[in-house]
Amino acid sequence: MLDAMRARRVEANPLAAEKSAIKLVSENRKAFHDYHILEKLEAGLVLTGTEIKSAREGKVQLRDSYANIEKGEAWLLNTHFSPYSHGNIWNHEPTKKRKLLLHRREIEKLFAKVREKGLSLIPLKMYLKNGLLKCELGVCKGKKLHDKREAEQKRDVEMEVKKAMSQRNARRLGD
């Protein structure tokens, strides 16, 4: 009964429906090329006012960023949040250390994996979910050069097959 009432309230309010949608802010495509992603995890971020405004504009780069665990806390390093265009002298520093919000058990589990197996914590995506900025972390293992070559060859074959199928379908429609 309550769920039905909430659903009607969301349908009636267009701003509420827009706020609950997930909006992709940034994606780390290079991570998918350079690493095998073994596990994914969602984390929140501690941000200042101008950082979240910059993120809402989509001005975040995850290219060379990574996460680290220090003294029982998870930190996001090397992530570039461009300075907010309408910011003033209190604008944020673009590549400062940002705290990740995770449960203690999750942090301990990640720390054990990173320490023992030599895995890395890499941010894969950043997105707005219910008005809050979230970061999708991946527990990753680095790819070797031959793994990258195999992935490129597989992708090239798939592209050729897709192109051949679209040409075949175009000829069939033209008849």
Short description:
The protein contains 6 helices and 9 strands; from the N terminus they run ααβαβαβββββαββα. By secondary structure, it is an alpha+beta fold. The strands form 2 sheets. Strands 1-8-9-2-7-5-4 form a 7-stranded antiparallel beta sheet. It has a two-stranded antiparallel ribbon with strand order 3-6.
Terminal CA distance: 55 Å
Total DSSP E strands: 9
The overall average pLDDT, rounded, is 82
Q: Please tell me the total number of domains.
A: 1
Structural class: alpha+beta
Strand order of the largest sheet: 1-8-9-2-7-5-4
CATH fold field value: Small Protein B, Chain: A
* Helix-residue proportion: 40-55%
Q: Indicate the radius of gyration in whole angstroms.
A: 21 Å
Detailed description of the structure:
The protein is an alpha+beta fold. It has one domain (14-143): Small protein B (Small Protein B, Chain: A, Beta Barrel), CATH 2.40.280. Helices cover 43% and strands 32% of the residues. It is built from 6 helices and 9 strands; from the N terminus they run ααβαβαβββββαββα. The chain has helices at 2-12, 14-20, 29-34, 49-56, 104-117, 145-174; strands spanning 22-27, 35-45, 60-61, 66-70, 73-77, 80-81, 98-101, 120-129, 132-142. A hairpin with a 2-residue loop joins strand 4 and strand 5. Helix 1 crosses helix 2.
